[in-house]
Specification:
Interacts with PSMC3. Part of a transient complex (modulator) containing PSMD9, PSMC6 and PSMC3 formed during the assembly of the 26S proteasome. Pfam families: PDZ_6. Belongs to the proteasome subunit p27 family. It comes from Manacus vitellinus (golden-collared manakin). The chain is α+β, with helices and mostly antiparallel strands and 136 residues long. It folds into two domains: 43 residues; 84 residues, Pdz3 Domain (Roll). 42% of the residues lie in helices and 24% in strands. The chain is built from three helices and six strands; from the N terminus they run H-E-H-E-E-H-E-E-E. Strands 1, 2, 3, 4, 5 and 6 form a six-stranded antiparallel β-sheet that branches.
Length: 136
């Protein structure tokens, strides 16, 4: 009876070692895939057309979470494909006063969505930030 118990415990131990080894391999594969996916996502970041170089505290832009050095990829309907001048952005802002705009920026190598509502506030303009075009 003792010999049967020892043999059975040895089988259980070996099976546990194999199970943990497979789990470790799976985890390593998953991490490698996640890293590869993150790298390919960085490669596929859209082309920014403008950059935020100033945000006034307390302004609609500040309240929405827009930050200095955010690179703008989409500003409402304006994107890198149809952007010609900052007048495109100004037109979208004027037509969207009081209504939320979807703004997509690249911040720290990541794509970030910001809900920005242009409106009148104590300061100048409807946004309270300064946007400059990026040279291509």
């Amino acid at each position: 009876l003792q010999n049967d118990h020892k043999a059975l415990m040895k089988q259980v131990e070996e099976a546990l070692h194999q199970l943990h080894a497979r789990e470790k391999e799976k985890q390593a594969r998953d991490e490698a895939e996640a890293l590869a996916e993150a790298m390919s996502q960085n490669q596929s970041l859209p082309q920014p057309f403008a950059k935020v170089n100033a945000v006034t505290p307390g302004s609609p832009a500040s309240v929405s979470g827009l930050q200095v050095d955010d690179e703008i990829v989409e500003f409402g309907s304006v994107n890198a494909n149809n952007f010609q001048t900052l007048q495109n952005v100004a037109t979208v802002v004027q037509h969207s006063e009081g209504r939320p705009l979807s703004v997509t920026v690249i911040r720290g190598g990541r794509r970030v969505h910001v809900g920005l509502t242009p409106k009148r506030w104590a300061g100048k303009g409807l946004l309270g930030c300064n946007i400059i075009p990026l040279q291509r």
